[in-house]
Amino acid sequence: DNPVIISIAYDDSEYCGAAWSYSINGGNWSGYDDRSVALYNLPQGQVTFELRVKSITTSEERTLTRKFTYEGKGTVLVPDPNSSGSAN
């Protein structure tokens, strides 16, 4: 219910191909993919979204962390200004 879609965009004309994996609230990591992320049945309240981005060419990885509050159906997500742009 109430999917939250996270669209991930980067300028692939300037950077090599990439794939990403994500984790919610410290849970298991998803498999790597290069499509938008759809989250279903999120718990209401504070959510920590981690995105592990990997270069397809070099296998270099970087992890990004964003925190937001999810209030249920019809919520507009506003990132916490203290979220980390890079955890590595």
In short:
With 88 residues, the protein is mainly beta. It has no helices and 5 strands.
Describe the strand arrangement of the main beta sheet, using strand numbers.
Answer: 2-4-5
Q: Helical segment tally? A: 0
Biggest β-sheet strands, sense, barrel: 3 strands, antiparallel
- The fraction of residues assigned to DSSP E strands is 35-45%
List segments where confidence is low: pLDDT < 50 over at least 5 consecutive residues.
none
Structural class: mainly beta
Rg (CA only)? 14 Å
Oligomerization state: single chain
Query: What is the tally of beta strands?
Result: 5
Q: State the separation between the terminal residues, measured CA to CA.
A: 33 Å
Overall outline:
elongated
- The average pLDDT value, as a whole number, equals 79
Q: SSE order in H/E notation?
A: EEEEE
| Helix content class | under 10%
Give an account of the 3D structure.
The protein is mainly β and 88 residues long. Helix content is 0%, strand content 39%. The chain is built from no helices and 5 strands. The radius of gyration is 14 Å and the shape is elongated. The termini are far apart.
